[in-house]
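Problem 12. The chain below contains 325 residues. Write out its predicted structure in C-alpha cell notation.
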Amino acid sequence: MSTTLEAVRPIELAEIREARERIAGTIVRTPLIRLELGPDYPDIRLKLENLQPINAYKLRGAANAVAMLSDSERERGVWTISAGNAGQGVAYAARKAGVPCSVVAIETAPVSKIERMKALGAKLILVSYDAAWKALEERSFPGLEGTFVHPFDDHNFIAGHATMGLEILEDAPDTAVVIAAIGGGGLITGIGSAMKALRPEIQVWGAEPETAAPAALSFAMGAPQVFTEWKASFVDGAGGKSLFPRMWQRMKPLVDGFIVVSLEETKRAMRLMAEKARIIAEGAGALPLAAALTGKAGQGPIVAIVSGGNIDLKKFSELIESAAE
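Solution.
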C-alpha cells in the first residue's frame, strides 16, 4: 500500500487559499481572544477551535478532504481512524456530502466523542489503541472497504488545517510564536505551512504531554522515534506512540521547537481557561497554553491553539478540581 502513496510535498499557499474557499460553508471562522493574565505572564492569545460545529479543529481538514473526493470515491463511502475528533470531522463532512462513513474508534475515547460520532451517522468499530495505531500505519482494517481518509498524513486534510493560519495572521499580525499540540502532526504541519509561507520569522512550536512525546524525542534524536514510555492519559487527543516517518518529513522544515508539559501543568491550563475566559478545553486543547506558561517560548505575542473541547463534563470537573489542590 505504501508504494501507492503520494510523495510528501509542501503545502502551497495557493492550496491553502483554495481550501479556505472550499470549506467556508462548513466551518466556523473561530475567534482569537487575548487571555488576560497580568504583567507577570507572557502575552497569550487563544485561537478557539473548540467552537467549531464538532468542537474541534479537525473539521477543517475533514471538510477539505471530503470535498476533494471524486464521485467514484464518494460512492464507495469513506472511513477513518480516530480517538474522536477526526472521526467527528469526517462524519460531519460526509453527512453533509451525503457520503456513508465508518470510523475505527479507540475504545477508551471519551463517551461524549463516541456518542457524537454515532449521532453524526458514523458506523463505529471500537478497537484498542494498539489496533488503531496499527491500522493507521497500514492504512487498512479487516472488513472495511471504501475510501480511507487518513486523520493526519493526508495532504488535503493538512491543507484544510492550514486555513487556520490565514485567520491567525489576519486577526493577530503581531504574532511572534504559534503553539499547537501534536498528535499525528497534521495540525502543526498545516499551521506551519501557512506561517512559513507568509511570515517565516514567526516561530512554530509543538506541545506534547510528558506521557506521550514522540515528536520532541524525534527532533532531539534527529530521526523519527518510538516513544517507549507511552502511557494513556486524559490527554487523549494528542501524543502518539511514535512519529510516522512521513510526518517527520512534513514537520521537519516547519517546526522551530517543542515543549513537553506535565499532566499537572495541563490540568492547570484547563482550569485557567475555565476561570479566566469561561472556556472548556479538552486535554490536548490545553497543551499549548500549558506550554506557553512555561516561558520557554518567550514573552509573545503567543497564539495558543485551543484545538478542541470534547471532554466529558464530569471528567472535566474532576480534572480542574484536582488542579486546584
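Discussion. The chain has a mean pLDDT of 93. Students who got a different answer should revisit the alignment rule from Section 12.3.
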